[in-house]
């Protein structure tokens, strides 16, 4: 039986890197942010922090706070017969509750944590969608206050601390995948 592994954490914590490592362990990846990207493209808007926030919040107003989980469910289901699915970008408490009710024990939450200072430094060096420290802090506040992001992180089945070397991160991911896959 395959699992749904939702990788959660604040922006710049290393979620995408952990998800990439899970993909290397034969998990299929579903990125919730693809929905935002597609909507930005549909609207003809450039990909930037302000536009992404507008779209994320608009989609949640239109479809509910569990919008990304509901809208991604067909993509998850399509892959789940073949392999475990790693979700990159589960944010809201409502998304967590929707998927937990739907998948039960098959939903595994893996939180990736790094301190704000380190995350903001990483985000400022990113080649795709870089953020200044002020933009990163504003995004943190908006995600916690408007998107209920803290709940899924608190409910994690596993927590990976990403405040060291890349090799230390890899070792932690291997440890988690050995338990899950």
Low-confidence stretches: none
Report strand order across the widest sheet: 2-3-1-4-5
- Please indicate the count of domains: 1
Mean pLDDT rating: 94
Please give the alpha-carbon distance between the first and last residues: 10 Å
How many DSSP helices? Answer: 9
What's the CATH H-level homologous superfamily?
P-loop containing nucleotide triphosphate hydrolases
Architecture per CATH nomenclature, i.e. the level-2 architecture: 3-Layer(aba) Sandwich
What is the alpha-carbon Rg in Å? 16 Å
Counted beta strands: 5
- So what's the CATH class? Alpha Beta
**Mass-distribution shape:** globular
Structural class: alpha/beta
Biggest sheet layout: 5 strands, parallel
Report the helical percentage: 55-70%
CATH topology: Rossmann fold
Write the layout of secondary structure elements.
Elements (H helix, E strand, L loop, with lengths): L3 E5 L6 H10 L3 E4 L1 H11 L5 H15 L3 H14 L4 E4 L4 H11 L3 E7 L2 H10 L7 H14 L3 H5 L3 E4 L4 H15 L1
Parallel strand pairs: 1-3, 1-4, 2-3, 4-5
Helix pairs in contact: 2-3, 4-5
């Amino acid at each position: 039986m395959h699992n749904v592994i939702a990788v959660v954490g604040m922006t710049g914590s290393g979620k995408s890197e952990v998800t990439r490592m899970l993909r290397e362990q034969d998990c299929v990846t579903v990125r919730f942010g693809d929905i935002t990207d597609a909507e930005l493209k549909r609207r003809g808007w450039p990909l930037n922090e302000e536009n992404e926030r507008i779209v994320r919040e608009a989609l949640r107003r239109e479809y509910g706070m569990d919008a990304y989980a509901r809208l991604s469910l067909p993509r998850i289901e399509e892959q789940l017969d073949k392999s475990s699915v790693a979700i990159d970008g589960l944010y809201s408490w409502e998304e967590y509750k929707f998927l937990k009710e739907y998948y039960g024990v098959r939903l595994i939450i893996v939180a990736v944590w790094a301190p704000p200072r380190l995350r903001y430094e990483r985000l400022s060096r990113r080649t795709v969608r870089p953020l200044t420290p002020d933009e990163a802090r504003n995004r943190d506040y908006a995600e916690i206050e408007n998107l209920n992001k803290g709940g899924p992180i608190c409910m994690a089945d596993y927590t990976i601390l990403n405040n060291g070397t890349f090799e230390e991160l890899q070792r932690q991911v291997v440890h988690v995948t050995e338990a899950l896959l």
